[in-house]
Amino acid sequence: DKGWTWVSSNSHYSLKLGGYFQPRYETQLPESFDTQDYSTFKAKRARIGLKGALGERLSYAASFELASASAPLRDMYMDMRYREELSIRVGQTKVPYSKSFLASSTGRDFIDLGVLQERQRYDRDMGVWAMGSFAKTRVKYQAGISNGSGGNKSNDNVDMALSARVEGVVLGKYIAPGFGDYEGSSEPRLTLGAAVVHDLVRVPETISGIEVGNRDVDGNGVLDNVRAISSEFDAQFRYEGFIEGTYRHERWGTILKHEDNADLASAVRASDSGHRNYLGFSAQASYFILPHRLQAGARISHGRLPLLGIGGLSFDSVPPAQRLMQTDVFVQLWRESYRRVGMTYSFLNYNEIDAPDPANDKSHIIVVEAQLVL
After folding, report:
1. Dmax over Cα atoms in the chain, in whole Å?
2. For residue 101, which phi and psi values (nearest 5 degrees)?
3. Which pTM was predicted?
4. C-alpha span between 143 and 169 (Å, rounded)
5. Residue from 186, 47, 162 nearest 104 by CA
6. pLDDT-based confidence at residue 89 (cuts at 50, 70, 90)
7. Is the dihedral of CA 126, 132, 138, 139 positive or negative?
8. Which pLDDT score, from 0 to 100, does residue 178 have?
9. What is the pLDDT of residue 109?
10. Across the strands, what pairs with 313?
11. Which residues have a Cβ under 8 Å from the Cβ of 229 and sit 6 or more positions away?
12. How far, in Å, CA of 318 to CA of 14, rounded?
């Protein structure tokens, strides 16, 4: 059931093999619908993995991305459970930050995260975390330190990223990351979550396609860092709904004041003190029109778009404007607790805060994706 599994006779040792493949067609069109910006088939993800237990307290997991020529490592960690209130996780895994990203792509309502969610999130990282639950599992937490440089990468400075996330059950049973109410909740359920990450981000060679002219403004022989403090709040409730808010505070110091970084300064638009704030939210709702079979839903996101990628993420270009209002609708077919095929329509509307909106600031994206889960 849902993969190949071996379990020892005493149930202390286990091995489960599985994976999934997500081929898709994707196209983007301008507001007028009179042409196509791009049109392509591609494999969004093709992953294989294993997980299991080595005794009564030690569990493990590993996964690999096959859609990449280099087959990069995705997850690789071990969990040592001491008691319900405390387990220690060591290895590479998703940073405990945004619940939208913590949800597996196999079970999300929407095929993709929104543009705002992608630019605000953290990715996988190598580190160590403590985690556990209290009050009969109604309160869960995870906190620890990691490189802050992203998956499959060594720390690019001497500073570690500090992350913490806590969730609490308000109504009903705990709702794990994942947004489709496939089981069909018979009672109201509400789970609240909050997270914070503090990191010093080493200034990369390019930021959203802008070349950084001087990465050592103080001339001390050490590349500069940007202090990034990110926070997140989410509320997930059944009958199905999910709300997520994000806030990021960046401190650039004197980096943007150097004349060699004038292009970057004009794009970041920090305050005189070198500070920049980004606030955004995303809200979505979905419903199973046919229980366990046919699902539909909608999402709206709005917020300011950061240029600096955190947690090892990077972006190819500067957005057309500072802010984005994104609206998405979807419909998809499920089978055996997984979505099998779905279609998402997205309308992207970029807008400036105190200037005229740019040309070609509106576009449409259509994605049709199938999913095979092993």
Report:
1. 69
2. -85, -30
3. 0.92
4. 18
5. 47
6. very high
7. negative
8. 80
9. 85
10. none
11. 196, 197, 198, 248, 249, 250
12. 47
Assign 240 a pLDDT band (cuts: 50, 70, 90): low
DSSP state of 109: S
Quickly state the pLDDT bin for 1 (edges 50, 70, 90).
low
For residue 280 the two structure tokens come to: 């955004």
Which tokens go with 343?
């279609």
> How many other CB atoms are found less than 10 A from the CB of residue 38?
9
Lowest-pLDDT choice from 4-8, 152-156, 333-337:
333-337
**Token pair belonging to 106:** 């196999």
Closest CA to 290 of 182, 175, 368, 178: 182
Count of beta carbons in the 10 Å neighbourhood of residue 254: 11
Residues whose CB falls within 8 Å of the CB of residue 290, separated by 6 or more in sequence, listed in order: none
For residue 251, pLDDT over 90 is answered with yes
Nearest to 279 by CA among 326, 323, 318: 323
Tokens of 89: 């996780």
Return the structure tokens found at 183.
């089981």
- In angstroms, the CA 28 to CA 40 distance is 10
Q: What is the pLDDT of residue 71?
A: 67
